[in-house]
Design a protein that fits this description.
Length: about 400
C-alpha cells in the first residue's frame, strides 16, 4: 500500500499526540489520596509525605502491588470534586463534606472508613453524659474550666474508651481585651454583637454545629444554661423566636447576631485564641484544638505548656458530631478499597501517638485519628439533614 506525502505528514503529526496519551496514563497500581489541611498546609504536606512510605510498606508486607500518592487540597469541596471527577481515589472528608457530596452528587462517593479518636477523660469517665443532654455537656464545660471540684483539665486522652464522635467547642481568652480594655467572655451571650472565628461552611466543628447550637438558644432552658443569669438577652423576643445567628456583615445585637469571620485552619484559630488582643472574642473549633494544635504539637511553641488551658476558657459545647470519613470515589475497584482499608487500619495502630515517625503519630498529627472502623452511610443521616436545612 502506498501513502501520499500528505497522508504521511498527517500520521507524523498524530504520533506525538498518541504518545502523549499513552505517557499520561496513570499506573493502575497507584492509589491517589487527597488530604485537606486541618492545620497549616506546609505541616500537613510534610506529614503526608512521611505517611506514604508507611502505607507502601504495609502493601509490600501483605504482598499487594499498590502504592500511595498523597496530595493536599485547599478545601473539602475541592477534595470532593477530585473524587467525583476521578482525579483522586481516596479523600479525607468531614462528615459534613461527605453528606454534602451525597446530597448534591448522589452516587459520586462512598464512605469506606469512619475515624475513631481517643475519648477525653472529662467526658468518658470523669463527667459522663450517658443520655447526651445539654445539662450534661454544660457540666463538662464547667469541669473543663475548673469550676467543679477544682478539676484540672489538660485534655487527658482515654485510649481505652474510643470515641466515634466529637464535639465543637467555643473558646475564649481569659484575658481578652477590646480596645485595650479587659472584656470577660465566659457566657454565650457575651458574644452577641461581637466577632467570632469560624471555619468555612463545610466544616462541622467550625461552622455547621456552632450554627445549630446558636439557633437552639431560642429554647429557654438553653438560654438559662448558657447565658449570664442577669443577661439582658434572656427574654429578648427576637431571640426567643430565632435564637442566635451568625452573620457576615455588621451584627445587630438586638437580634442576637454574632459576626462570623472565616479563619483558615485550626492552627490559625488556635493562634487567635491565645492572643489576648485578638479581634476575635472567641473561636469555634473541634474539641480540643488547644491540645492537638498546641499542647501536643511536636515542635510547637506551646508543646506541654499548660497555659493553653489555664489562659483560655471553654464557653460552650455543641451536640456530638460523627467523626470524619475516609471516602472513596464510586467505582473504585474492590481490591483497591480493601487495600486502602487495610493500609489505614494498620498504620493508625503502628506505634503510638507520641512516638515520632510511627503511623499512629503521623496520622494523629494530621487529624487526631486513633483508629478506623468500617464506615456506615446511615450514620451520616443527621449530617445530611443539617446540610439540607442550611441550603
Amino acid at each position: 500500500m502506498k501513502f501520499s506525502k500528505r497522508k504521511m505528514m498527517m500520521c507524523a503529526a498524530l504520533l506525538p499526540v498518541l504518545f502523549s496519551l499513552v505517557g499520561c496514563k496513570k499506573d493502575p497500581n497507584q492509589i491517589d489520596v487527597v488530604f485537606v489541611p486541618s492545620r497549616d498546609a506546609t505541616t500537613l504536606g510534610e506529614s503526608a509525605k512521611k505517611l506514604e512510605p508507611v502505607l507502601d510498606k504495609i502493601m509490600k508486607d501483605n504482598n499487594l502491588p499498590y502504592y500511595f500518592k498523597i496530595s493536599t487540597s485547599t478545601t473539602y469541596p475541592a477534595a470532593g470534586t477530585a473524587l467525583m471527577n476521578s482525579q483522586a481515589d481516596v479523600g479525607f472528608l468531614t462528615g459534613t463534606s461527605y453528606a454534602q457530596m451525597t446530597v448534591d452528587h448522589p452516587g459520586s462517593v462512598e464512605v469506606l472508613l469512619t475515624a475513631q479518636r481517643s475519648g477525653f477523660k472529662v467526658q468518658t469517665t470523669d463527667y459522663k453524659n450517658p443520655n447526651n443532654t445539654e445539662e450534661g455537656r454544660h457540666r463538662q464545660v464547667q469541669a473543663m474550666n475548673g469550676e467543679i471540684d477544682n478539676y484540672e483539665y489538660l485534655a487527658e486522652q482515654d485510649t481505652v474508651n474510643v470515641a466515634n464522635s466529637y464535639n465543637s467547642i467555643l473558646i475564649s481568652n481569659r484575658n481578652h481585651k477590646e480596645n485595650g480594655k479587659a472584656t470577660e467572655i465566659k457566657y454565650v451571650d457575651d458574644l452577641i454583637g461581637k466577632q467570632v472565628g469560624i471555619q468555612n461552611n463545610t466544616s462541622g466543628a467550625g461552622y455547621n454545629y456552632p450554627k445549630l447550637f446558636l439557633a437552639n438558644m431560642k429554647n429557654e432552658a438553653n438560654r438559662k444554661l448558657w447565658f449570664r443569669p442577669d443577661s439582658q438577652y434572656l427574654n429578648n423576643d427576637y431571640i426567643k423566636e430565632h435564637g442566635l445567628t451568625i452573620v457576615s456583615g455588621e451584627p445587630d445585637a438586638s437580634k442576637g447576631e454574632i459576626k462570623g469571620v472565616e479563619i483558615k485552619g485550626y492552627d490559625a484559630a488556635f493562634t487567635e485564641v491565645m492572643n489576648e488582643n485578638s479581634n476575635f472574642a472567641g473561636v469555634w473549633g473541634f474539641m480540643d484544638i488547644r491540645y492537638s494544635n498546641g499542647y501536643n504539637k511536636t515542635g510547637g511553641k506551646y508543646k506541654d505548656d499548660k497555659s493553653v488551658f489555664t489562659n483560655t476558657y471553654t464557653v460552650a459545647m455543641t451536640d456530638p458530631i460523627f467523626n470524619d470519613t475516609i471516602s472513596v470515589r464510586s467505582g473504585l475497584e474492590k481490591e483497591k478499597k480493601d487495600a486502602v482499608s487495610l493500609a489505614f487500619k494498620t498504620a493508625v495502630k503502628q506505634g503510638d501517638v507520641k512516638t515520632e515517625g510511627t503511623g499512629a503519630n503521623i496520622i494523629y498529627n494530621i487529624y487526631s485519628h486513633t483508629g478506623y472502623s468500617d464506615g456506615v452511610d446511615a450514620n451520616y443521616d443527621n449530617e445530611r439533614t443539617i446540610y439540607r436545612n442550611n441550603k
